[in-house]
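FW: tagging you since you asked about this chain on Friday. Here's the raw sequence from the shared folder, copied in full. Didn't touch anything.
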Amino acid sequence: MFRVVTALTAGAVLALGLLPSMARAQDWTVDTEASSIRFETTGYEGPVSGQFASWSADITLDPEALDAAAISARVETATGSTDGGNAIDETVRGEDGLQSAIHPLAEFQSSEIRATAQGYEAVGVMTIAGASQPLTLPFTLTITDGHAIADARLTIERQDYGIGAPGWGSIAAEVTLVLHIEADAAI
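HL: got it, structure written out here
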C-alpha cells in the first residue's frame, strides 16, 4: 500500500511540475486609445515624427509560457501622418514611400518570443511596401492586475523595404519605430 501511495504522490508531483510548461499563454485585448505606433526620422529640414491612426494586433503572451506566445500586428499605411503636415504625409504614403494604394498594410508576424536581460524580444518577419525582412523587436513589458504595458523602440533601414526615390539619398535612411502598447487580459 505504501508503494502505491508513494507512486501516486510522485506522479502527482511530476504532473504538477509539468503544468507550467504546458500552460496556455494569455490572450490580450489591445486598448488602441491608450496605445500608439509612432515613427521618427530625419527629413530635408530636420527631424520628422508621426504616427499611424489605424492598426490592430493579436497578442498571446504569458511570461511563464513564452513557447505559446505570438504577436501579429497590422498597420493601415494610409493612416500614417507626420507632425509636419500634408506635403510630407503625401510623400510618406505615396509611390516612393509606403505605397499605401498598392500595399495598404504593413505587417509583423512573430515566430518566437523570448526573454532577455533587458525584457523580451519578438522574433519574426516585418513586411512593408510588399518587402519582407526578418526582424527582432526588443520590448519591455509590465503586467499589473491584468493590465499590460509594452514599450519598444527599433530602428530600421527604409531601403531594406524598397522605400525611397533615387533623389532621397540619406534623407529618412533610418526610421525609428516607437511602440507603446496597452492591453487588458482577455477573459
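FW: Residues 24-185 form a domain with the Lipocalin fold (CATH 2.40.128.110).
HL: agreed, and The helical segments are 2-22, 86-93.
FW: great, closing this out.
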